[in-house]
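Hi R.,

As promised, here are both runs. First protein below:
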Amino acid sequence: MLGEFIPIARVVIGVRNLKLFSFGPRPFDFLTCHAPIQPLFDMGVEIMENSELDLLDIVQAQKDSPAVKKIAQEMAAELGKGNTYPDLLEKLAQYEYALELFMQNNLGASSYAAFANKCWPAFEKYFGHVPCYLNSRLAAKGVPVACEADIYGALSEYMAVCATEVPPAILDINNSVPKDMYEECKKEIGSYTLSDLWMGFHCGNTSSACLVNPLMQHQLIMHRLMEPGKEPNITRGTLEGQIKAGPISLFRMQSTSEARIRAAVANGEVLNVNPKSFGCIGVFAIPEMGRFYRHVLIEKRFPHHTAIAFKHAAKTLFAASKMLGVEEVYFNLPKGAFYPSENPF
């Protein structure tokens, strides 16, 4: 029992000594990621919100830093055969070094950090790349970076890495699995039903260690919007690959518009099924996911982003959330147990 308590304590101590850095306002298109931040202060989390101009300024200041070439070499070694844009690495390294330096210089009284950074649409025009691969590298160092300035997503990722000591990810949970794929892969899927399955997807922020054959790519959706009919340039810098099969936990902490803090957590797994799509993506399975999605994630107004822990960590995250004062912690109910709003017929 003491052994089980260690990761719980690590999450609680981590959160109470955490500083969240954000760059840029949360995009209106992702209204669900907007939420009052008062509950974060109540838990002991410090927040420092900055503009995208601040981000541009700190990155430009590191243009001639000798550390940039060294980081670019580390990137090349990590990517190996997946290094499809070697000419881009120094630009990416400059951005990564600037963020790390900013973090070190601005932690203040806090001990740990996570980021929630706006990553489009102006970002690509001024920085000349997408930040996805860099987000994945910082997550691998224990400093998660949530996309689209998702502050509560960054907190959720940070709690996941404290619980597991494994790099986390932040993924969309709004894609279902096609029925023909389900029928083709019955052997790999086993006893899961179609409604137990979902596609975990994002542009390219999952650490290379969690991917099968990671490959640096351009961001397909942004390329269509920003560089239609042209060779990819400013939309390069994402990391793509199928997410490795294995155990996972879904976790999300979120404030409501009334500043009430809630959490949702469930254990599951990534299946060894080809998702046949782009980005960092995998076929995920969680028992009774369809009902959990309907009666918790949608009904309780959780956003489309979830943190992913690449171990079973639901027990730890549930207990830590309670210790941090979160009264409403939801989980996936087994078949035969009904949610309060569920029609039993």
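And here is the second one, sequence first, then its structure tokens:
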Amino acid sequence: MSVGVASIGGVGQDLATPLWQCSGEELLCAAREIETRMRRDYAVLLDLVAELDSRNVAQEQGYPGLPELLRDVLRITRAEAKRRIGHVQALLDVRLVSGGTVQAPLPQTGQALRAGALGPEHVDTIGRSLLGLPSSVGPDQRAWAEGILVQAAADLDARALAKLGARLRAELDPDGTPPSDNELAQPCNELRFTAKPNGRLAFRGELDPEASALFQAVLSPLAKPRPSSVEGPDPRSSAERYGGALVEVLSLAADTGQLPSEAGEKPHLLVIASLEALRDGLHQALLHGAGLLDAASARRLACDCKLIPAVLGAESEPLDIGRISYTVPIAIRRALILRDGGCAFPGCDRPHRWCHAHHILSWAEGGPTDLANLVLLCGPHHRLIHHSQWQCAITNGRPEFYPPHCIDPHRKARRNTLHPP
């Protein structure tokens, strides 16, 4: 496809050049010029919107207001129409009937938009940073802060600019908007979640500033990237790392034993599985509150849990319920901590508090609950061992791990050297 692009072949030239014949540098240059022109055109559009508003054209055309008129004429949403009207009010001077003018709140931003140096998203960010400041912030301070943001917008996208804007606003108005007595007494913290058919949970919410700081402080050390290994750096995205950190916080909280009881029991996961599912891995289990669970996951959960044997009748009615038994007694777990120090998987530095006791030969297959058949593994590596071709063995009293052929064709044994013995 051929497209006429200004200045692709040189300054001031208009050439209808096929894109595939252009160099990468020429394409980038053309993209920058088009973006600059779009920003300048947006400034002209704001002039038109201001003129429409000053003439009350919306009322002349029978519309209740200018947003509704712009929605129909430009085929944009009402929210977008109101956004552009807000830009007009922030960037353009207002002509008074008496003949005078009222200066725009953000004159430097308006000039930069006309020059194509920043775009509508930058305008949003600068407006959120500087509009609505208290009267104690004088015009000179506002102009100083706006100049800094306009200059920075030449090099930053709107998201990065917002961080600078937040710092400037905090400097200009360190006290911020004082919360009401009711907000101080009862901070608004919200969490909404919905269970999906596949058992996953989708949620969103909002925390007050103090709770937000605590939330980030708790998750941050758990969400840091794992150390690089022979497979390369941690492949997880930031969202995946923080999701994993949240799960670990929940596990740590549940393991403290200090959470309040519900229906006479501490918070726990209830998994219902047949002996065949645990022994042979052929049937699904039931995870209470989340639905069906594959047998491999049930076997992983059975590594370090409380077991309650139950005898069922022909119609699956309970005939006998046994007592709770612990698969890994406290004394043996302490010995594991002394031996492994933390997660024994090669290259993992997670402490023992975050680890499960994994049965190398599964408990359901008759694997004994002793040091020669147990190893400490953090949650991610426990799942990896159960759901991949990695294998583990105890050699000379120490756990060794054997990678799959796809990682090491020779399957050379690996040990964790990060935890002191």
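A quick note on the second one: Confidence is low (pLDDT under 50) at residues 1-7, 9-15, 319-323. Let me know what you think.

Best,
J.
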